Every structure is written in C-alpha cells, then in structure tokens.
Amino acid sequence: FISRAILLGMILTGWIFACMFFQFDHPRIETMGYLSMFVVSHCAFYNLISKGSFSLDYFLQLTQVVIFSYASVLIVQQILSLLDFAPFPYINLTYKPMPVLKCQSLSTEPSHSARIMAAAFYAFLKTLEMKHRHPPTLKELFNKYKWLTCGFAYSMLSMCSGTAICCLAILSIYFLRKQY
Predict the structure, then answer these.
(1) In which region does residue 34 sit, left (phi positive, over 0), alpha (psi from -120 to 50) or beta (all else)?
(2) CA separation (Å) from 135 to 91, 132, 171?
(3) Higher pLDDT, 100 or 144
(4) Beta strands in the chain (DSSP E)
C-alpha cells in the first residue's frame, strides 16, 4: 500500500537527492540522511493517522506526556544546578548554566525546549478544541489540567530564553476572543 504521503515523500527525497548530485564538490550526505529520517517519520505518522490506529485521545495523552517530561526534567535540572551538582549528564545537564536556572531540559539548548514545548502545548489546545468542539478557556485549563498548565507556564518563564517568551506571546493570541 503506497499512500499519498509515501508517494510525495519519495518524490521530494528523489528530487533533493538529484539536486545534491549536481553539486559534485560537496554532496552533504549527512544532510540527506537527516532529511530522509524526517520524510520517513512523516510518512509513518501519516499512515498511523489514516489507518485509524492513532486516536484523538491518544494524541492528547501523548502531548501531555511530552509537556510533563520536559517540565519535570527542567525542574530536576534547576534543582541540581541550584545545589551546584552541574554538570550532571545523566539528565542532560551537561554544563553549568550561567544564569543558574537556564537549563536546557531534554534538548540541546533552552530555545529548542521552548519551541518543542510551545508546539506541544498548541497541539494540546487544538486537540482539546477538536474533542470538545469549542476552544478551551484559561479557566477550563486551570480547572481540568492544573499541573500541566502550571508546569508549562513555569518552564517557559523560568528557562531564561527569549524564544520561550516569544512563544508564550504567540500562544497567548490563541486565548483572545472577539467580544463585539
């Protein structure tokens, strides 16, 4: 079974491989491998959704796990950094952060964590909106998902990243409603 995603992924990958071989000096094989991993993961994700083996409730649970994971690792890293146990590579605390709370959580730097957490929280909001057929309000989020919302907000505000603040500003637009 060749789905539309697999067909388009093969065309895209073939086109980029063809363009790469026109540049004989430096073909950048590692970039092509990296691109191929993204294309394959997109095709697998598309096929999971189209076959119905990836439900809305499962995706909602998955986004919650991602946000909780990033938030809990960040909190543990910040505690270890405050207690001067950095570097501690077992939980991705590979250097001593200069502002003590500027930890990277599960990624290589705080701005990457901010983007991943913002995308996961936005996906969580849109999934709730699809499930309940109306956009969630801040009051509903704090009543039903208090730990998730507080963990997300704390993580974004405490990781000392300009990207996190920009992502929070962009996500706050989601909660603006027309009142007229």
Answers:
(1) alpha
(2) 35, 8, 13
(3) 144
(4) none
What whole-number distance in Å separates Cα of residue 90 and Cα of residue 162?
26
Residue type, 96: K
Residue-wise pLDDT tens digits, 151-163: 999 999 988 888 9
Token pair of 82, please? 């405050």
Rounded to whole angstroms, how far apart are CA atoms 65 and 77? 18
Residue 113: Cβ within 10 Å count: 26
- Average pLDDT over the chain reads 84
Between 110-132 and 56-82, two packed helices, what is the crossing angle to 10 degrees?
A: 150
Residue 39 to residue 77: CA distance in whole angstroms: 33
**Please, are residues 117 and 110 in contact by the beta-carbon 8 Å criterion?**
no
What's the pLDDT at 178?
A: 65
pLDDT digits (tens, 9 = 90+) for 28-59: 777 778 888 888 888 888 878 777 777 888 88
CA-CA-CA-CA torsion sign (130, 145, 170, 74): negative
